[in-house]
Design goal:
- The complex is a heterotrimer of chains A (380), B (328) and C (324).
- Chain A has one domain: Cytochrome-c3 Hydrogenase, chain B (Orthogonal Bundle).
- Chain A contains 15 helices and eight strands.
- Chain A has helices spanning 53-57, 65-70, 77-92, 98-128, 133-156, 176-201, 204-210, 218-224, 229-233, 240-243, 264-288, 344-349, 352-355, 361-371, 375-379, and strands spanning 13-17, 29-35, 38-45, 165-166, 169-170, 311-319, 322-330, 336-342.
- With 328 residues, chain B is α/β, with parallel strands linked by helices.
- Chain B has helices at residues 2-10, 12-16, 20-37, 48-57, 88-100, 112-116, 147-163, 202-211, 266-277, 318-327; strands at 79-83, 106-110, 138-140, 196-198, 216-224, 229-237, 242-249, 255-257, 280-282.
- A four-stranded mixed beta sheet of chain B has the order 4-7-6-5. In chain B, strands 1-2-3 form a three-stranded parallel beta sheet.
- The two termini of chain B are 34 Å apart.
- Chain C has one domain (2-323).
- Chain C is 67% helix and 0% strand.
- Chain C has helices spanning 2-36, 53-63, 74-90, 109-117, 120-130, 134-165, 170-176, 188-203, 215-218, 228-252, 266-283, 291-323.
- In chain C, helix 10 crosses helix 11.
- The N and C termini of chain C lie far apart (49 Å).
- The chains are: A alpha+beta (380), B alpha/beta (328), C mainly alpha (324).
- Chains in contact: A-B, A-C, B-C.
- Chains A and B meet through helix 1, helix 5, helix 8, strand 6 and strand 7 of A and helix 4, helix 5, strand 5 and helix 9 of B.
């Protein structure tokens, strides 16, 4: 009898994560090629939520577009319409009343806090599972988020697709009652956010799971087009609110939190510190809020159709996920000839294929969560 | 439940006893009570409505009061809440997930998109309502539905279950995959007033730009003009807050060099341009469709691609639609 | 007939009481979790605080269609949950749980208990392997690595009281602790209890060590393909096993039936429930750690500590015997 040693290489184990998976943050599919627990190679598939917004907007008047766009990045809807409206206003040279500008920033910052709270909560689910400590973090984050949504409901009538912005100004005003509600909210949120920051940043297991995991170097961010907390976590001091200010951000004083190592821990901490900065911004807005008109145009029903001059224009704003830009080509009619949405999540997510190899399955979840993609924004 | 009911009905002699019918109805009531009291939904979200669904599970609204806990595996779930826009690419997966769920199972279509497609319903990639794919028991309207509406929908479903009268809506449609016909559309002349670069020079130009300090690629996109496509590259120099726009006019064969060697972030952007416009990039590491399914026909963002043209499974044509509307 | 009364009745009673307790442990868990997360928890099913919730869940799972995946090994697939449930129930035959003494009277009870309860892993492995699912496969690979390594500190931490007390039988251990519970034994008692607690968390697949069921990574681990009654068996067996370990902890470290005011077997269950609640607190407040960190933590920290402790307690016993 011969002793035959049969060695056969069956290749890697290909594991499909998604599109329905508890921690892909929506509909995303990762194909992990595994060797034991280690990931050798990654393929990613997206487009499961491709709703053809860019094609759709080619058939809509400019004033009809913002509500559609608000469904895009559904964690911070206001940023979407804000970016679009800023682009149109620059194209058509429309002046915005000061009060309207303040109110826009107020809503945008409230939603920035709520968006980062969702990011932190779902990150908890990634780290701790739906039946564990992660669920507790998730539920606490959503509890605070509900308070923000209450205020938004008082001001605009809807919970988070606010439809606050319109070209030339805002739709809804605030009164003393709603201002008091915002003040109460700020007083409530301030200690809570600080508490969560302290608890999470010192949590032993959290640090073990996220420190030195998914390190994104400065060069990688720059070349891949990463922006927002992903870029700032890697130590790049770039925030469009400061560097290329829009609306009234140049009149407000706030800091840009920056990470050091570019690992998952830093990215999460940048998000958490940003919420605290947003609170500062809202406090200043409440102090400075001027009186005045809400909109420089007539009400939408009687206003003339917007017809921006021929040509193209690009303008970006800072959404909670990064640089959200709109590239609009106008042919002089009331509908855009072509509109490109520069989605921050799309560029941020493209880094994932380069980060995952040589990590473990558990890290894949952590890294994906730390990039905080929103699939309405990625797939558009 | 089917098995148990069947086996109970098989006890033929038992049924002849007086009062046996009564016993049967009572057990059925008990079974319905059990089914309605522990509805375990599949943890599965598509879009904005999923965020509101998560809010409904969170502390303030707390669906655990009704005995609902999410299960990640479809085998253990009884209820599928389709929360968000259903696309053609996702539609096939939703069907698979539904088939994987063990019966008895129920479906809630939450939000306007899952009900009818909402404002996306004429878009090429969107299924106008999840009931074209799987049977739906309860519709929860709203864009997105508030948590109160979600709870209302779940209570309505519990009502249906406890009465034992489940009659889901299912629009079955069979559409053959067809090649698309070209549509004549009036395209505009090139609208850019900026300089247009020849497509052969893009690689050298990008090298030159990068050496000037523009090391950040914002995006790549294309616009479909008369005679040719124009590609737009946007670079920025974040340290000096400068932006640089480059417009490239493509030749008739729609082909140019990839810049993914210089800017790695261009890889996905170029794939998107290929997917949407059919522009081919030389030396691209993986030039495949990124947003649309692999076997999709046509490039949606070209001007001669009509918005509701694609005839695919689960995607009824405009005529199907109109006939369906008039039926109601 | 005598045999029937002596043998079958206690088994039947034990199992039915046990299943009832375990079903309500799930309810307790959901309630405690809800309180920790500022929610209400089960409420509307069985009006005062969802008391009928476990019954509804169990009945619904029984009514669900039975499915097994294509290309799975049907025999093993069905055998897995049965094995897990039977084994985890069988370990209760050794615990002095409902009746005055355990059903199987032996002075090697602790050893047998550990031997039986570690057979659960076989069932889990069968289930994960035969499911023909990659998530399940990775999950069972993880759980085997985890349980093999955590069984060592668990057994050693249980051996320490046995060495000092000088017996492996539960009756002797309980008798010894009538004056002082072992957890109050200076230094050694506390360290041994902490070792036991940590490694039983891993043994019972609880957060932060619930890697086999890691929801966010492996969907639901080895139960991914199971539905209906088979899933219910796994679900119950997990809690039965955890409750068994809690009872074991209450007997060996918390003095079993001996209390301050009275001595009763009811106290064993009460203390076990107390331990179980502490496990719940841990579960609902920690994140999960990674598999390599888990194993490193075990081999670098727990096992050296447990061996040192074992050595110390052996020496202590030796000198105590010399003194006496």
């Amino acid at each position: 009898m011969e002793n035959k040693i049969i060695e056969k290489d069956f290749g890697d184990l290909a594991l499909n994560m998604g599109p329905q998976h508890p921690s892909t943050h929506g509909v995303f599919r990762l194909k992990l090629h595994l060797e034991g627990e280690k990931i050798n190679r990654v393929e990613s598939y997206l487009g499961y939520l491709h709703r053809g917004v860019e094609k759709l907007t080619e058939n809509l008047d400019y004033d009809m577009i913002p509500p559609v766009l608000e469904r895009d990045d559904y964690l911070s809807p206001t940023s979407n319409s804000l970016g679009f409206i800023n682009t149109i206003e620059e194209m058509c040279n429309i002046e915005v009343p000061k009060r309207a500008s303040y109110l826009r920033v107020l809503i945008a910052e409230l939603q920035r806090i709520s968006s980062h709270l969702v990011a932190l909560g779902t990150y908890g689910l990634d780290l701790g599972g739906a039946l564990g400590g992660g669920a507790s973090l998730f539920l606490y984050c959503f509890r605070e988020r509900e308070k923000i949504l209450d205020v938004l409901e008082v001001i605009t009538g809807t919970r988070f697709h606010t439809n606050m912005n319109q070209v030339g100004g805002v739709r809804y005003d605030v009164n003393d009652e709603s201002l008091n509600k915002i003040k109460d909210l700020i007083n409530y949120l301030k200690p809570k956010l600080n508490e969560y920051y302290n608890v999470i940043s010192n949590d032993e297991i959290f640090m073990k799971r996220t420190k030195n995991i998914g390190i994104i170097t400065k060069e990688l961010v720059m070349s891949s087009g990463g922006s927002g907390p992903v870029a700032r976590g890697s130590g790049i001091n770039y925030d469009i609110r400061k560097n290329n200010s829009y609306e009234i951000y140049d009149e407000l004083s706030f800091e840009i939190p920056i990470g050091k190592n570019g690992d998952s821990y830093d990215r999460t901490m940048v998000r958490m510190r940003e919420t605290i900065e947003s609170i500062k911004i809202i406090e200043q807005i409440l102090e400075k809020l001027p009186e005045g008109a809400l909109c420089s145009r007539k009400p939408l029903k009687s206003a003339k159709l917007l017809k921006p001059p021929k040509g193209s224009h690009y303008k970006a704003i800072e959404s909670p996920r990064g640089e959200l830009g709109f590239f609009i080509v106008s042919d002089g009619t009331s509908m855009p000839y072509r509109m490109k949405i520069r989605a921050p999540s799309f560029s941020n997510l493209s880094i994932v294929e380069k980060l995952l190899p040589e990590t473990y399955i558990a890290d894949a979840v952590v890294i994906l969560g730390s990039l905080d993609p929103v699939f309405g924004d990625v797939d558009r | 439940m089917g098995n148990v009911k069947k086996s109970l009905k098989d006890i033929g002699s038992f049924m002849k006893l007086p009062g046996a019918n009564m016993f049967m109805t009572k057990t059925e009531d008990l079974f319905n009570w059990a089914n309605k009291s522990s509805l375990w939904p599949l943890s599965f979200g598509l879009a904005c409505c999923a965020i509101e669904m998560m809010a409904t599970f969170s502390s303030r609204y707390d669906l655990d009061r009704l005995g609902m806990i999410t299960r990640a595996s479809p085998r253990q779930a009884d209820l599928m809440i389709v929360a968000g826009t259903v696309t053609v690419k996702m539609g096939e997966r939703i069907k698979t997930l539904y088939d994987q769920m063990a019966g008895p199972k129920w479906v809630i279509a939450a939000g306007s998109c899952a009900i009818s497609g909402d404002h996306y319903r004429h878009v090429y990639s969107v299924v106008p309502g999840v009931d074209w794919i799987i049977p739906v028991d309860v519709y929860v309207p709203g864009c997105p539905p508030t948590p109160e509406a979600f709870i209302d929908g779940i209570l309505a479903l519990q009502d249906i279950i406890s009465k034992g009268k489940s009659a889901p809506t299912f629009n079955s449609v069979s559409c053959e995959r067809k090649s698309i016909d070209e549509v004549k559309v009036k395209k505009k002349e090139i609208l850019f007033d900026k300089e247009l670069i020849d497509s052969n020079l893009i690689f050298e130009k990008c090298n030159e730009i990068k050496s000037l300090g523009y090391n950040y690629l914002n995006f790549i996109t294309a616009t479909d003009f008369d005679n040719s496509l124009v590609l737009t590259y946007m670079f920025s120099n974040n340290f000096e807050n400068k932006k640089l726009e480059i417009n490239v006019k493509l030749g008739p064969e729609n082909r140019l060099d990839s810049i993914s060697n210089i800017y790695p972030g261009a890889e996905w952007q170029e794939r998107e341009v290929y997917d949407m416009f059919g522009v081919k990039f030389n030396n691209h590491p993986k030039l495949e469709r990124i947003l649309m399914p692999d076997d999709w026909i046509g490039h949606p963002l070209l001007k001669n691609y009509k918005m509701e043209q694609a005839k695919l499974p689960y995607r009824p044509s405009r005529e199907d639609y109109e006939s369906w509307k008039t039926k109601l | 007939m005598n045999l029937f009364i002596d043998f079958v009745t206690p088994i039947f009673l034990t199992i039915s009481i046990l299943i009832l307790i375990v079903a309500y442990l799930v309810w307790l868990e959901r309630k405690v979790a809800a309180k920790m997360q500022s929610r209400i928890g089960p409420y509307l099913v069985g009006k005062p605080h969802g008391l009928l919730q476990p019954l509804a869940d169990a009945l619904k799972l029984m009514l669900k269609d039975d499915s097994s995946p294509k290309n799975s090994d049907r025999l093993l697939f069905n055998f897995g949950p049965i094995w897990v449930m039977v084994v985890s129930l069988a370990s209760f035959a050794l615990l002095p749980f409902v009746f005055e003494n355990q059903m199987i009277k032996t002075n090697l009870a602790l050893m047998l208990f550990i031997a039986i309860s570690s057979l659960i892993i076989v069932g889990i492995f069968i289930a994960g392997w035969s499911s023909n699912n990659k998530f399940a496969l990775i999950s069972v690979i993880r759980i085997i690595a985890q349980i093999i390594s955590y069984e060592i500190p668990l057994i050693i931490s249980l051996l320490i009281p046995c060495i000092i007390i000088g017996s492996l039988g539960f009756i002797e251990i309980i008798n010894y602790q009538q004056t002082t519970w072992f957890i109050f034994y200076p230094v050694i008692g506390q360290i041994a209890f902490i070792l036991f607690f940590i490694s039983s968390l891993a043994e019972g697949n609880r957060i932060p060590f619930d890697l086999s069921e890691a929801e966010s990574e492996l969907v639901s681990g080895y139960t991914t393909e199971y539905s209906g009654i088979k899933f219910a068996l796994f679900y119950l067996a997990e809690y039965v096993h955890l409750f068994g370990i809690s009872v074991l902890g209450s007997i060996i470290f918390l003095g079993g039936p001996s209390g301050i005011f009275f001595t009763s077997n009811f106290l064993i269950v009460f203390k076990a429930l107390l331990l179980f609640t502490i496990v719940l607190f841990v579960r609902w407040s920690f994140f999960r750690i990674r598999i390599d960190q888990l194993l490193k933590f075990n081999w670098n920290n727990l096992i050296p500590i447990s061996f040192v402790l074992l050595l110390i307690s052996c020496l202590l016993k030796y000198y105590m015997d010399l003194v006496i």
